Amino acid sequence: MPLALILTVLGGIQSSFKNISAHGPAQQDSVESVKAFMQVYSVLTSPRCMNCHPSGDVPLQGDNSQLHTMAPQRGTDGKGVYAMKCSNCHQATNAPGVHTPPGNPKWQLPPADMKMIFQGRTPHQLAKQIMDPKTNGHKNREQLIAHADDGLVLTGWNPGEGRTLPPMSHADFKKAWITWITTGGYAPSEK
To answer: Would you state the pLDDT for residue 26?
Structure first.
């Protein structure tokens, strides 16, 4: 057997092992993957997610995703600048009352060097951005799957009084998220 053929076979075997994780081997299925991503997209572009993933450096707020009152800035680490730190108003838990600041001990926007913009992204653009480690916080497939249970992500389903929830339950979102990633992480086509 020629050396080139042996190396090709070994390379194929090695890449097969790379696709195996706690969620099993990746089963490439572009139709199922895109279908799952469109469910994911409906959540990511809802105010509960998009408000902290704006196109600019000022977070959004409310169910209408308006610019945040007092125009706080992202800052290098995503936690605000100078005396306008996110944690000044966003405490460890939701403040009581309607439309008061929602809380989480790690409240912040993505950092300036990895903005993870959801606002204004097409399904194709957002799927590509999320699957690319250069634009997703250097996350691999397993880290992306685990991110569905991140504390700030879960805050979207506990937003405080007076705010709408994402368009599906967290359990359904997580199922669609995992399906999208494990079936290939395909991006819907540009239209």
So the answer is: 58
Specify if 146 maps to a domain: yes
- For 129, the domain range is 27-182
For the cut 60, the answer to whether the pLDDT of residue 19 exceeds it is no
Following DSSP, what letter does each residue of 9-22 receive, concatenated? Answer: HHHHHHHHHHT--T
Q: Residue 120: left if φ>0, alpha if ψ -120 to 50, beta else—which one?
A: left
Q: What angle do CA 162, 166, 167 make, to 5 degrees?
A: 120
pLDDT averaged over every residue in the chain = 89
Helix (H, G, I), strand (E, B) or coil at 152: helix
Confidence of residue 99 (pLDDT cuts 50, 70, 90): confident
> Per the domain annotation, does 4 fall within a domain?
no
Q: Name residue, tokens 């895109």.
A: 34
The sign of the torsion formed by the CA atoms of 178, 34, 113, 77 equals negative
Q: Give pTM, 2 decimals.
A: 0.84
CA distance linking residue 60 with residue 55, whole number of Å: 10
Element (H, E) at 115: none
Q: Is residue 11 part of a domain?
A: no
Domain count, the chain: 1
Does residue 136 contact residue 111 with C-beta atoms inside 8 Å?
Answer: no
CA dihedral 8, 10, 15, 21 (to 10 degrees): 170
